[in-house]
Fold HAD superfamily protein involved in N-acetyl-glucosamine catabolism.
Amino acid sequence: MKQTSLTALIDRFDTFLLDQFGVLLDGAKAYPGAPEALAELSRRGKSVGILTNSGKRAGPNADRLQAMGFDPSHIDAVISSGEAARAVLSGRIGSSLARSAKVLVLSRGGDVSCIEGLDLTPTEDTAIAELVLITGSRGEEISLDQYADLLKGPATRGIPALCTNPDMTMLTERGPAFGAGRIAQLYRELGGKVDEVGKPHPLIYQVAIDRLGAAHPARVLCIGDSPAHDIRGAHGAGCRAALVRTGIHADEPLDQVLADAPPGDHPDFVIPSFAL
């Protein structure tokens, strides 16, 4: 593991997979210098993908980045766990998931884009739900105990859950809060079964590598702020990984961050921020 800078790494890699929150965005706005750094990667002919555990589909994530000052022409692809999960759900309809099955969607802002256009029916009634879809957390507004009260019934009845955002912590305008991954963990604690799509699981990396035409994963650099998600997932896909010192661990000493992570979650590089 080497502490270095983004500038020193640019020419060593052909493709860059960037986390969204913690690398480009702080939960409310773009980090200083991030739009300019993204522009420089594009200017040098690098393939750039945004690889995010957002439970929303690619379009809303791309729109948010543009609204925060990022030029969409500098981004070759946005790959979200919500987009990958939609493909998973589509494949299950008519087999393990009944057509028009009733789905309890836990999200932010009432987003149900993950199932829009699919033969599934959103419901807020936990008593009739046939699937729990965990796409986002409202952890800054709703306590974990409140989520437990909501989910106890479906978990007890053996209703399966799919989590499209495995992040345990998220950045919000009010500061860090528990993420959708923590809700998935809670569902397991209540006795339910959960499948997960997103970092560090391999499916989303394969989608990203294929989308960007990256023939050699070792020439791909993944940049993220979470050892357990971004670094572990990158190494599992055969890519190199850089830990950025912004995001969820920004206030923790690096030695402590790495001491809490198993060896496989240690980055190849550490950079102070996604800026030149």
Summary: The chain has two domains: 2-53+199-271, 97-196.
